[in-house]
Amino acid sequence: MTYNRNKWSWRAEALALAVGTLVLAMLPAVFGDTYTRHMLIIIFIYALAAASWDVSLGYAGIFNFGHMALFGIGLYGYAILTKQLDLNPWLAFVLAGGLSGLAAVLMSLPILRLKGIYIVLVTFGFSQLVMTLIVSQSDITGGTLGIVRIPTLPIAGHNLIRDGKIGHYYMALTLLVLGLVALRVFVRSKAGLSVVALRDNEEYATSRGISLARQRLLTLLVSSLVAGYAGAFYGAYLRTAATDVFGLSLTTLILSIVLLGGIGTIYGSVVAAALLVVASEMLANLGPWRPMLIAVLIVVVMLAYPGGLMGLLRAAMPTRRQPTAKSGRAASSEPVET
């Protein structure tokens, strides 16, 4: 059997995800304080936002700098639908993700056939346009003051305010797992493989009949739906919506999570989000030194392991001895692991 440490079989990946989910599900029993649980919830939300960005940036190679605007549309969509239109929170949550998907379709139209810096400019301009629109429509969005006291996602018969954040923790964990599964299913599908083919060799892929415009649109749609639901849950959990989500601070943080975790890995975003959030909290007393030390940490990891934390983990995995010509012939009848 040939061995490729960069690829897992479906069965191995599902087993690893199940074990990881079980470990995360048991953490509230270990960490009884609400502050640690709050940090874990934020880690899950940031990880999902970063993983969804990784699909368009890492797998498709689209320099989409409007991704956090899609996150913000999910946040404001949920806030407006529940606060201004008084919709049921769960219905508003579903619609908010759809709004992000619709926004991604509109954003993608001008960039379907653009390349490089032009995509950066258009998507960054889209992000600024969304923020300007939200600030200007203060009667609906609250302008620079934002929206407060947003209704949370209710659980029948459960008090989310006095449960020590248990309810929100398991909702965030469920959203994270579902989002990761959706993203992995996409990137491992034929559509996902064609997206990677376009990234690696656009001319060859298009000559084989793969549509650049269609696959870019599909990638941004999948990525935006997950980002939109992460943003909607962010609003339901914190119960506030502010234009800070469109700022460079959060955009830089989420992009750092993508890069530190490893481009084109998805799961690396979860590891990197945990590392950055925990490191940020541990260095909170250092004031202005905190962002500088975190930046140094990211640079050191990226210099040592350009593949990010997932590259580091793969390098630490034991490598099987390459089969000899004789053993290779003997193994040729065995199935190939993908």
Topology:
Layout: H1 10-30, H2 34-59, H3 67-83, H4 89-108, H5 117-136, H6 138-141, E1 147-148, H7 166-188, H8 190-200, H9 202-207, H10 212-238, E2 240-241, H11 248-261, H12 267-282, H13 289-304, H14 308-316, H15 325-331
Antiparallel strand pairs: 1-2
Helix pairs in contact: 1-7, 2-7, 2-10, 2-11, 2-12, 3-4, 3-5, 3-10, 4-10, 7-8, 7-10, 8-10, 11-12
Concise account of the structure shown:
This protein is 70% helix and 1% strand. The protein has helices at residues 10-30, 34-59, 67-83, 89-108, 117-136, 138-141, 166-188, 190-200, 202-207, 212-238, 248-261, 267-282, 289-304, 308-316, 325-331, and strands spanning 147-148, 240-241.
Question: Can you walk through the features of this model?
Answer:
Keywords: Cell membrane, Membrane, Transmembrane, Transmembrane helix. It is found in: Cell membrane. One of its GO terms (molecular function) is branched-chain amino acid transmembrane transporter activity. It is a multi-pass membrane protein. This protein is an all-alpha fold. The protein has a domain at about 20-200 and about 210-245. The chain has 15 helices and two strands. A two-stranded antiparallel ribbon has the order 1-2. The longest helix is centred in the middle third of the chain and has 27 residues, at about 210-240. It is globular and about 55 Å long.
